[in-house]
Specification:
Blueprint lengths: L2 H51 L6 H49 L6 H31 L9
Helix pairs in contact: 1-2, 1-3, 2-3
Length: about 150
């Protein structure tokens, strides 16, 4: 590989890293209302519920069962968010693999002129498509978690 091609590859690589960081920032921004709900509303309800479980008249096993039942909403919500984000990451990875496959095919066919530009364009398109999916994921999570504006969610 000549020096010009290596320099071009480094530049494109840096641009791609910035674009991937853009997805992370967008995901964190979009999901912040969900995380707030889980971390504050559901956690607060859990601790209030668990506090009520501690009664000297209860057996230790009953207390443990009560506390475990109190944790179900928080655990379920965390699992739901993790599953949705895993699906999101999987979709993102598949779309980026398509870009990588196209780039590799272009290199094999010696169609190097524009291959890096095509790769960058493909990745940019894939990232934008996935970022546009985030509000729909948040809406689905809100519906699944059954919370509304009055719960502090916008």
């Amino acid at each position: 590989m000549n020096h010009i091609a290596a320099a071009e590859e480094r530049i494109v690589s840096e641009r791609l890293k910035r674009k991937l960081n853009e997805v992370n920032v967008a995901a964190q921004n979009q999901l912040s209302v969900i995380q707030d709900h889980v971390n504050f509303n559901l956690q607060q309800a859990y601790f209030k519920c668990a506090y009520e479980c501690f009664d000297r008249r209860r057996r230790q096993e009953d207390i443990n069962n009560c506390v475990e039942n109190c944790s179900i909403p928080v655990v379920s919500a965390n699992n739901l968010v993790e599953n949705e984000m895993a699906k999101f990451q999987e979709r993102m990875n598949r779309s980026l693999m398509v870009c990588q496959d196209r780039f590799e095919a272009a290199k094999l066919q010696k169609l190097k002129t524009g291959a890096m530009t095509d790769l960058e364009s493909c990745v940019d398109h894939a990232i934008q498509d996935n970022i546009q999916m985030l509000p729909h994921i948040v809406d689905r999570l809100k519906a699944s978690l059954s919370f509304s504006e009055r719960n502090g969610i916008q």
